[in-house]
Structures are given as C-alpha cells and as structure tokens.
Amino acid sequence: MEVFAEYLTQIDNPQHRERMEEVLGWVTKKFTDLKPKIAWNQPMFTDHDTYIIGFSVSKQHMAVAPEIAGINHFSDAIVQAGYDHTKQLLRIRWDSPVDFSLLDKMIEFNIMDKADCSTFWRK
C-alpha cells in the first residue's frame, strides 16, 4: 500500500479516501502476485508487466477499469450489481456497496485471459 500512499493523501473527501483505501487494500491482500503501481496518475495492478485493473476517483463515484474485454465479459453482472458502465469502466457510486465478489471475478478473468499477453494493454 506504500505505493498508493501519496495518491490517497490527495483525495480530499475522507469517505472517498477510506473507500479507495479499502478497495486497494483488499486487492493487495487478495492478489499478492499482482504488482501495485501508479501510472497515468491512478492506482493500478499489473501481472508480468501487463495491465490487470485500475481505479480512479471522481466526485460521484469510484471508477474501475478492467479494459474493454473485462467490461464486455461482465456487463450483465455489472448491471445486476447496480453499477453503471461504459466501454472502458464501471462506476461504483460512493453511496453504493462494493461488490467484492464481482471485483474478484474480473481480476481473476484478466489474470487468466492475459496470462500469455506480452503487452501492457490487450491488442
């Protein structure tokens, strides 16, 4: 979590900062093989130098970005969880609970789907 310390201090809203700490901490503990890093001014996790998942903060929500393949694969589950999504990310409103089961499945999917990927992003 040290990697994210400076990023987290820049989140003005204490509830938003706490939520982001909770989610990033959960990913760090659950997926110990993933490398936490800051890139493009946002926290993300990589595996063998390929992107797995990233997070960002906005006024209304936390954004989760599992790449287009992750959104496409889980679009029904994202809607069932009560989240809004675009082609690139899903939005977890600050007043909504985090569906850690869904995050777990998205991260596992990306780890498996990108096991042989030699680039940062999918092609």
Summed up:
This protein is an alpha+beta fold and 123 residues long. Helix content is 41%, strand content 24%. A six-stranded antiparallel β-sheet has the order 1-2-3-4-6-5.
How far from one another are the termini?
Answer: 30 Å
Beta-strand percentage range: 15-25%
- What is the domain tally? 1
User: Unreliable runs, pLDDT <50, ≥5 residues?
Assistant: none
| CATH architectural name | Alpha-Beta Complex
CATH topology: Aspartate Aminotransferase, domain 1
Helix content: 40-55%
Order of helices and strands: HHEEEEHEEH
* Average pLDDT score: 96
- CATH class membership: Alpha Beta
* Spatial ordering of strands, largest sheet: 1-2-3-4-6-5
Query: What structural category arises from helix and sheet content?
Result: alpha+beta
Please, how many helices?
4
Q: What is the multimeric organization of the chains shown? A: single chain
Sheet having the most strands:
6 strands, antiparallel
The 3D shape can be described as: globular
User: What is the radius of gyration computed over CA atoms, rounded to a whole number of angstroms?
Assistant: 14 Å
Number of strands: 6
Protein name: Intracellular iron chaperone frataxin
Domain YdhG-like: 16-111
Pfam families: DUF1801
